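The protein record filed here.
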Amino acid sequence: MADKTFRLEVVSPDAELYSGDATFLVAQTTVGELGILASHAPMLAELAPGGCVKMTEASGKQTAFAVQGGFLSVTGESITVLAESAQFVSEIDVAAEREILSSAEPGSAAYLQAKSRVRAVEAVS
């Protein structure tokens, strides 16, 4: 039976946020939402502004990252999320981000960042 995990790296210019094995990844890209399993065909996709990335670790635990721009690189054995900036869902104050969403100009950098963070929280709620 083929291995059902792949190596996942989530990095931003500031830090490596995650490095480990995962079984499933969902990413919001500029062409839509993608679900990726082990042995997926190689591809490169641009991450959507205001999007998030949700993953299922090999242990079964699910988590998400708020991601503002960047790229998703998929090979047969690994996936790399190269984010312009990213944040773990556990570090997000969703009430504060919802307040920013209601007051910021739609499409602005502040709006897209708040939208990304709210999406990440909702992805694992």
